[in-house]
Structure formats: C-alpha cells, structure tokens
Amino acid sequence: IDSNGLILRADLHRLFDRDLMAIDPSTGIVHFHPVCGASYQSLNGYRVELPKGGPDLTRFAERWQRFTDRVGE
User: Fold this and answer.
1) Average pLDDT, the chain
2) Using CA atoms, how far apart are residues 38 and 2, in angstroms rounded to an integer?
3) CA-based torsion, 55, 58, 63, 64: positive or negative
4) Does the pLDDT value for residue 2 go beyond 60?
5) What is the DSSP secondary-structure string of 14-62?
6) pTM for this entry
7) Dist. CA 6–CA 66, nearest whole Å
8) C-alpha to C-alpha distance for 50 and 35, rounded to whole angstroms
9) How many other C-beta atoms lie within 10 A of the C-beta of residue 21?
10) Which residues, 6+ apart, have CB-to-CB distance to 46 below 8 Å?
11) pLDDT at res. 31
12) CA-CA distance, 53 to 43, in Å (whole number)?
C-alpha cells in the first residue's frame, strides 16, 4: 500500500494541483485561495483526518509554501 497518496474528488484535485487549495502541515486545516470564491467556503477551514498509515502532514509543507506564496501575490 502506498502511504504517500491522498484521494480527492476531481475538482479538489485540480485545485490542489494548481496550488489553489492546500493543507496547512502544522494543523491539517484546508485552505482555499480567494479566487475560488464562495464555491468552496463550506470546506475552507476543514481539518483533514488522515488515515493511519497514510501520508504524514509534513509531506504537505512544500505545497503549503507554494500556496502561501501564491495567496500573497
């Protein structure tokens, strides 16, 4: 079993790949870029519960950095 994967629905996967959605590696909280608007407001602030044996939150650090850099643009 690959412990480096994260299963996301298609729209969230696209946002994640484009650094428009990220998971804060220190808290596990999901954040969306402001360009996503109200469409994802209900998921903004959601705390991710990773399965035992799944990816460690520290694996999201690089994406988190790219996301926070992008939000600061």
Assistant:
1) 89
2) 34
3) positive
4) no
5) HHHHTTSEEE-TTT-BEEE-GGGGGGGTTTTTPBP-PPTTS--GGGGHH
6) 0.84
7) 18
8) 26
9) 23
10) 29, 30
11) 96
12) 24
Q: Which of 28, 29, 1, 33 is nearest to 14 (CA)?
A: 33
| Whether the predicted pLDDT of 50 surpasses 90 | no
Q: Show the tokens assigned to 39.
A: 């469409």
Using one digit for the tens of pLDDT, what is the confidence trace for 26-38? 999 999 999 998 9
pLDDT given at position 64? 95
Q: How far apart are the first and last CA of the chain?
A: 38
Tokens of 66: 């790219």
* Residue that the structure tokens 């643009």 belong to: 73
Tokens at residue 11, please?
A: 């729209």
